[in-house]
Amino acid sequence: MRARRIPESSAPRHAIVRVLSKLGVCSRMQAVELVLAGRVRIGARVVRDPGERCRFDEAIAVDGLPVSGVRRRYILINKPRGFVTSRSDERDRKTVYDLLEGIGVWVSPVGRLDRDSEGILLLTNDTRFAAWLTDPANAVPRVYEVTVKPTMTEAEVEALTTGVDIGHGELSRPTAARIHGSVGDTTTISLTLVEGKNRELRRLFQARSRRVLRLRRTSFGPFLLDDMEPGAWREAPITAEEARRIQGRGPRGLAG
User: Fold this and answer.
1) pTM of the predicted model, to two decimals?
2) Which end of the chain, N or C, is less packed with Cβ atoms under 10 Å?
3) 74-136+222-254: what CATH class?
């Protein structure tokens, strides 16, 4: 039986600022500014109200350019320690956007790394793919190398995978944990997580009376840190079509 086509007039309508954000044009805050400045049109009509509702398939333009052709961008950055993962900071700290000179398009971080953490960070204007990657139901793996003090034994590290109470009613349970190496009174451990609880690894080791000296994310789903220098960024080796295929394969398509 053929699926009945939904008439155009009954397609869902959303606030124009949400539509611009979901289409990867800009953030919602930036969309509000664009609308208030009279830079957005729906058809031939200038939009002045950020709450005005429209469909995703309408002829929307910003500064006279149609938004339907916005290219999906996937940017990988090796976030150095000392940078925050936000567009701006009220305390005037350095942000990852300070490292993205010349990118020329709006992108948003997928998940976060705290100021003292480092490693691979994905930024994209593909909001659908970003939501899929961060949805706990999809169990997208994130691999970290964590150096702690004092040392931990093989048995202690293995026990991390059985679950650790990290407070606030939350349990951390890495899907894999192994010792990467030990130097003096420190141990470097490789762990794999499939959720993104707030400061999860720091809380995990604090619960085991260990101090985190260094925390570095080496992979996030299909994206690898490889040999990128700290502070460097590059286009991810993926297209919008490949992003759709990854979502279609589900978590198993990310294995390895």
Assistant:
1) 0.81
2) N
3) alpha beta
Q: Does domain 141-220 have CATH number 3.30.70.1560?
A: yes
CB distance 74 to 233 below 8 Å: no
CATH class as words, domain 11-69: alpha beta
Domain ranges of the chain: 11-69, 74-136+222-254, 141-220
Cα dihedral angle (166, 133, 118, 200), rounded to 10 degrees? 0
Indicate which residues carry an active-site annotation: 114
State the Cα torsion 128-119-164-179 to the nearest 10°.
130
| pLDDT tens by residue, 84-116 | 998 878 888 999 999 998 787 889 999 889 999
**pLDDT (tens digit per residue) in 184-213:** 999 999 999 998 888 999 999 999 999 999
List, in order, residues 6 or more apart from 244 with CB less than 8 Å away.
Answer: 129
Same fold, 11-69 and 74-136+222-254: no
Among 251, 229, 247, residue whose Cα is nearest residue 238: 247
Q: What does the block give as tokens for 49?
A: 């109200």
